[in-house]
Design a protein that fits this description.
Helix content is 31%, strand content 25%. The mean pLDDT is 96. Helix 2 packs across helix 3 and helix 7 packs across helix 8. 49% of the residues are buried. An eight-stranded mixed beta sheet has the order 2-1-10-9-11-12-13-14. It has a four-stranded parallel beta sheet with strand order 4-3-5-6, with helices on both faces. The protein has a four-stranded antiparallel beta sheet with strand order 15-16-18-19, with no helix packed on it. It is globular and about 65 Å long. Helix 8 links the parallel strand 9 and strand 10. Among the domains are: 145 residues, ANL, N-terminal domain (Rossmann fold); 98 residues, GMP Synthetase, Chain A, domain 3. It is of the alpha/beta class. Bound molecules: malonyl-coenzyme A and adenosine monophosphate.
Length: 496
């Protein structure tokens, strides 16, 4: 049977005239219109030379047309490669060089740098008011024969940073995405009556797959916001029944004076994930709204792994039991399963787990155990009730506002700056972003480096969310007896 994810969505559309995507004070786009536009775009992509299995990279603002574009890529059997709009030239060079996309769709403001870095691709623009992609799609047929795909065929590649400092492309198949979407619709009770307030970016698993797939598989509607703004979200929540967000969304809502029960009462479900939700945020939110945020846990490589229950007890500070169909084990250093209360590393198995890393078979082998479990790099423990509690990370990773930053990448960039001897990058607690990227730099004597000059140099090279919020100077970095920089000490020292 055809395993194309689009075919699965298509099977779930019960009413082509029902609204699918609603832009506040803007257009209402029906399921039928989304299908027709995706067909037109699919024709345009095929005409641009894209063949099944080719990669299509997309670096665009959150314009509504990105939804039919994503669906068009699925329909044409292409591999969708979404890119954070903050990525700069050096980052794009790596993605394009590694994934060799046949087509790149970008905002017209990025055309120069994209055309210079994706030399072998056809580059098409897409902006709020149109662009070459939609011009080419305009007169095309509104039907398109969706290509049949095997379950293991790739649907998407999502780049995720790595401990080596180089981003790696997680290869996600149609089966990966479909199995996770079906599990989530069931677990979170999505139905046609739902309205999902969508304020997340559409280039990560959370906003692209978790949110959009739940809506499309249940025939519910997406209330589409270009980005998260606490006041706007507060004003629109009464029109929504579900909101998904990273913890920063919730701390910002709690800090928003206009946010209260009138906004939260109509909403049946608030979901949080991508970074740890502080127990105090969970409690404060419940105190203000009477609602318990449902926290779930996931990864680019695996989609969603665990979720607190829709019915039943949602426990703050935990991420709930494994989703149906997903297996989780927590193992100690000796590889033996941990009993409840004992901390170990979290491993995952199931139809949701990635096929591998693009062009990196060795890395793929490393990230799986000999018996086939995927190593998440997260540390956790079981509660006596079978919920997972995440207690830390074995990987050297900072999560800032739900976005991952690997210190190694930033350290390499800082070390390349004239006058720097060495650097260490750590995450320190931050009231808004959860963790803030913070750099400690040892400079050569006589060099006129300043915090501002280092930040300015980095901003020219890498996405803004990766740039340290603060840069401190030190005479030397603290090291243990093995000569390894003791990051825990730096985190303690600069926490305040
Ligand atoms: C933006 N900036 C950030 C940042 N986002 N800095 C640190 N961390 C972040 N997350 C910087 C910008 O570079 C800019 O810097 C300044 O902040 C203002 O930019 P902005 O675009 O106006 O920011 P804002 O709209 O306030 O965005 C913050 C945010 C956003 C938290 C709303 O980052 C966001 O939507 N995060 C969600 C990320 C997400 O979807 N994660 C899911 C990953 S999937 P300057 O210096 O230029 O002013 C995953 C799997 C799973 O993890 O389980 O879900
Ligand atoms: P990403 O690579 O962007 O998909 O980020 C995945 C990582 O985010 C996971 O490995 C966890 O470290 C973290 N993460 C996701 N959800 C949660 C959560 N609810 N609590 C704590 N960490 C989380």
């Amino acid at each position: 049977m055809d395993a194309n994810l689009y075919t699965l969505f298509e099977r779930h559309v019960v009413d082509a005239a029902a609204p699918c995507l609603v832009v506040p004070n803007g257009p209402v786009v029906t399921y039928g219109e989304i299908a027709a536009t995706s067909a037109r775009i699919a024709h345009a992509l095929v005409d641009a030379g894209a063949k099944p299995g080719d990669r299509i990279a997309v670096q665009v603002d959150k314009v509504p047309a990105v939804l039919p574009l994503y669906l068009a890529a699925l329909r044409a059997g292409l591999v969708y490669l979404p890119l954070n709009t903050g990525y700069q030239r050096a980052e794009l060079e790596h993605f394009f060089g590694d994934a060799t996309p046949r087509v790149v769709v970008c905002g017209s403001d990025r055309l120069g740098v994209v055309a210079a870095t994706a030399r072998d691709a056809t580059v098409l623009t897409l902006d709020a008011h149109g662009g070459e992609l939609l011009d080419r799609a305009e007169d095309r047929d509104t039907s398109f024969a969706t290509l049949a795909r095997a379950p293991d065929d790739l649907a998407a590649i999502l780049y995720t940073s790595g401990t080596t400092g180089r981003s790696k492309g997680a290869m996600l198949t149609h089966r990966n995405l479909a199995s996770n979407a079906l599990a989530l619709v069931e677990a979170w009770g999505f139905t046609r009556g739902d309205v999902l307030l969508h304020a997340l970016p559409i280039y990560h698993v959370h906003g692209l797959f978790v949110a959009i797939h739940c809506a499309l598989l249940s025939g519910s509607r997406l209330l589409w916001l270009p980005k998260f703004d606490a006041r706007e979200v507060t004003a629109l929540l009464p029109k929504a029944s579900v909101m998904m967000g990273v913890p920063t969304f919730y701390t910002r809502l709690l800090a928003e004076p206009s946010f209260g029960r009138h906004a939260s009462d109509p909403v049946r479900l608030f979901v949080s994930g991508s970074a740890p939700l502080l127990p105090e945020t969970f409690r404060e939110f419940e105190g203000r709204t009477g609602k318990r945020i449902l926290e779930r846990y996931g990864m680019t490589e695996t989609g969603m792994i665990t979720s607190n229950p829709l019915e039943g007890e949602r426990l703050g500070g935990t991420v709930g039991p494994p989703l149906p169909g997903v297996s989780v084990r927590i193992v100690g250093d000796d590889g033996a399963p941990c009993p409840p209360g004992a901390i170990g590393t979290i491993q995952v198995m199931g139809p949701n787990v990635l096929k591998g890393y693009w062009n990196l078979p060795e890395k793929t082998r490393e990230e799986f155990t000999a018996d086939g479990w995927f190593r998440t790099g997260d540390m956790g423990e079981w509660t006596p009730g079978g919920y997972v509690k995440i207690v830390g990370r074995a990987k050297d990773l900072i999560i800032s506002g739900g976005l991952n930053v690997y210190p190694k990448e930033i350290e390499e960039r800082i070390d390349a700056i004239e006058g720097v001897v060495e650097s260490a990058v750590v995450g320190v607690p931050h009231p808004d972003f959860g963790e803030a990227v913070t750099a400690v730099v040892v400079a050569k004597s006589g060099h006129a480096l300043t915090e501002a000059s280092i930040i300015a140099t980095l901003k020219a090279d890498i996405a803004g969310f990766k740039v340290p919020k603060r840069v401190f100077f030190a005479v030397e970095l603290p090291r243990n007896s093995m000569g390894k920089v003791t990051k825990a000490e730096l985190r303690r020292r600069f926490a305040s």
